Amino acid sequence: MAKRRLKKSVKIGLGIIASVIIVIIGIIIGVKKYQDHKKYIASYEYKLTNVGYNEEELNYLLEQDDKIKDKLLDIDYNEKIVDFLKQKYFILDNLESYLEYYQKNNSTDLNKIVSLVNVGADSDYYDNTKETNIDDNNLMLVNKYNYLPEDYNPTDIVDIKNWYCYGENKIKNEVYQKFIEMFDAAKEDGKKIIISSGYRTYDEQKDTYDSYVSRYGVKKADALAARPGYSEHETGLTLDITTGNATKDTFESTEEFTWLKNNSYKYGFILRYPKDKEDITGYAYEPWHYRYVGVEVATKIHELDITYDEYYAYFIAN
C-alpha cells in the first residue's frame, strides 16, 4: 500500500511539474508573441502599411534609407511617391513640391518635374530668389533665382589680348588661361574660336538688359538676357564665344561650335544654356555662351548630359 501511495504521489508530483512547465512555456510563448507584436507595431513595415502603401511599394520602401521612411510617415499616402523616389535626381526635401507640381501638371514626365522643382523652376522667374553663395567660387550659381550680392566685385580680373577677343574684354585670370589652352587646341584642329564678350559690371549688365527691354519688352528681354545682379557675366566666369564672320544666329552651324560641344569640357567649360532646356535654365538656347566650372565638374556635366542648374541642385546644394 505504501508503495502504491508513493507511486501515486510521484505521478501527481510529476503531473504538477508538467503542468507548471506547460504554463511556463505558455507564458514564454505569450511573452514572445507580445514582444514580436510590439516589435512589429513599432516597425516601418507596420507603420507604412497603415499609411496606405501596398506590398509591392513596401518591398521597395523597406530597402530605402530610414530618412526616407521617416519622411513618408509624416505625409499622406500618394500613389506617385514611390515613382518619384525612383527618379535619378530625386531630392527628399523636395518631395512635397514634386507632388504639388504633379497635381497641377499631371501630364508632365516625372523626371522633368524633378528637374524643374530641383532648380526652382516651379516658381515664376525672379520669384523666391536668394543671394548666391559666393564661397562656392568657380561653382557659384547665378540664375533667375540666385543673385549676386550688391557689392560683389570678382577678384583677379584681367584684360584679354586682342588676339583672343573682339574689342575690349576682361575675364578672371584662371578662366583666361584655360581659354588660351582651349584656343590653342582648337587651332591645332584647324578651328578658330574667339571671345565676343566676357566680364561685365553690374552697370554694364543693366545697360544690356535695358536695351533688350526697350526693343522687346520685359517678357522677351527676360528670355534673352539676365537682369542686373543675376547675370553670370558679372562673375567673371562666363564667355561668349564665336568664330570668324559668324553671328549668334549662325554660330551653331559652324565647325567651331561642333568642336566646342565635343571638347570644351576638357578645359573646364560647359555650354551653359543648351537646346531644349529653356524651362530649366530660364534662357533661350545660346550656343555661344560658355561657363567655366573647372575640368572635373565640366567633365561630369558632359557625361551626365545635364545643365549646370541641375548639377548644382543635386550635387552641391543637396
Describe the structure.
With 318 residues, the chain is an alpha+beta fold. The chain folds into two domains: 44-118, no CATH class; 130-317, Muramoyl-pentapeptide Carboxypeptidase, domain 2. Helices cover 50% and strands 10% of the residues. The protein contains 14 helices and eight strands. The strands form three sheets. It has a four-stranded antiparallel beta sheet. Helix 2 runs parallel beside helix 4 (66-73) and helix 9 crosses helix 10. It is elongated. The chain starts with a helix and ends with a helix. The model has no long low-confidence stretch (mean pLDDT 91).
Which keywords apply here?
50% helix; 14 helices; Muramoyl-pentapeptide Carboxypeptidase, domain 2; alpha+beta; single chain; 4-stranded antiparallel sheet; 318 residues
Task: Kindly provide the name of the CATH class of the largest domain.
Answer: Alpha Beta
The CATH topology assignment of the largest domain is Muramoyl-pentapeptide Carboxypeptidase, domain 2
Distance between the termini: 89 Å
**Helix content estimate:** 40-55%
Number of strands: 8
Question: TL;DR of this structure?
Answer:
This protein has 318 residues and is α+β, with helices and mostly antiparallel strands. The chain has helices at residues 2-41, 44-51, 55-61, 66-73, 81-85, 95-104, 110-118, 173-188, 202-216, 218-224, 255-263, 278-281, 295-304, 308-317, and strands at 130-131, 146-147, 157-159, 170-172, 194-197, 238-242, 269-273, 286-292. Strands 5-6-8-7 form a four-stranded antiparallel beta sheet.
